[in-house]
Specification:
By secondary structure, this protein is mainly beta. It has one domain: Sandwich (Immunoglobulin-like), CATH 2.60.40. The chain has one helix at about 1-20; strands at about 35-45, 60-65, 70-75, 80-85, 95-100, 105, 110, 120-125, 125-140, 155-160. About 15% of the residues are buried.
């Protein structure tokens, strides 16, 4: 009898929770969306070669608007893009950048690039767009002389605006 009672109690401990369980239950699910700020440049490298001028005038500027594009995804508001070069441009030369603004944002138009960051797109809010145009323009005066091929790294930064 004692073995039967112990076996019955053991059986009740196993079966009782199943007998008491209902046909519904709940669980808490925690969720959040964190800040997303992604920027990517595609294409390139950009090659700007000044090799002509009209007699009696400064060298002709060169422009490239087909090589590079950028993509942007942010779920933030009041963002801006800034741009700068890693090293100063040689004397008597200038590098300019114009970015097409994503929907709802504002392009600052053509901006000269220096070692100090300059705003190129402002008023950026929640957006996910790609293949946004980038136009580079390079100019030089005759006083720049002959400059061998050199590179500058252009850095775009998505930041609070």
């Amino acid at each position: 009898m004692r073995k039967t009672l112990v076996a019955l109690i053991a059986l009740l401990l196993v079966v009782a929770p199943a007998l008491l369980a209902g046909d519904t239950d709940t669980i808490t699910v925690s969720y959040e969306v964190q800040a997303i700020n992604e920027l990517a440049i595609s294409g390139g490298p950009v090659s700007l070669i000044i090799n002509s001028a009209t007699a009696g005038s400064e060298p002709d500027d060169v422009t490239d608007s087909s090589t590079a594009t950028y993509a942007l995804t942010t779920n933030g508001t009041n963002k801006k893009l800034t741009a700068r070069v890693d090293l100063a441009m040689p004397a008597e030369t200038h590098l300019y950048l114009t970015l097409v603004a994503p929907t709802g944002a504002t392009s600052a138009g053509e901006q000269e690039l220096t070692e100090t960051a300059v705003s190129v797109v402002t008023s950026i809010a929640t957006v996910a767009e790609s293949a946004l145009g980038m136009t580079f323009r390079f100019s030089a005066t005759v006083d720049a002389g002959i400059i061998a091929t050199a590179n500058r790294t252009v850095t775009l930064v998505l930041t609070d605006g």
